[in-house]
Amino acid sequence: MGGVQVLKRVVRGTLEKAGIGAYSRDAELGFDFLLRIQRLRSRRPFFFIQVGAQDGVTGDPIRERVLSEGWHGILVEPRGLLFEQLRRNYTRCEGLSFVNAAIGESNGTRTMHALDASDPGLPPWAHGLGTFDLETLVRHEAELPG
Question: What is the Cα–Cα distance from 102 to 110, expressed in whole angstroms?
């Protein structure tokens, strides 16, 4: 089992023990359904952990809720330029913590591979691609137009 799957299992288990629903983009239950359950259970602000938060705007599935409902959470983004944009894009929001790190199988320093963010020919979603596995990046790059 890869590091990301292990992390998902650990986070999901920890949140479930605390009585908090967990969500991922591939979750079978709908995100809105989980939010309704959370609201019924607690009057505290919804708490989230977003790994790969990018700039906090481009393709972000939770940004509007963070802004409109005052969600609290931890936003993790390993790439320096995107991390700085993320912090700027949430400047006036309270209850948010920002972590400039990548999640891997072990502690330490590793090379992260990414596409050239300055390339104007890339679709917006491609600017956020980043991985430790060069083959994964090459596969995504082959899917790009042009």
Answer: 9
Q: How far is CA 108 from the centre of its chain?
A: 20
pLDDT in tens, 62-101: 999 899 989 999 999 999 989 999 999 999 999 999 999 9
pTM of structure: 0.70
Please write down the HEC assignment for all residues of 88-106: HHCCCCCCEEEECCCCCCC
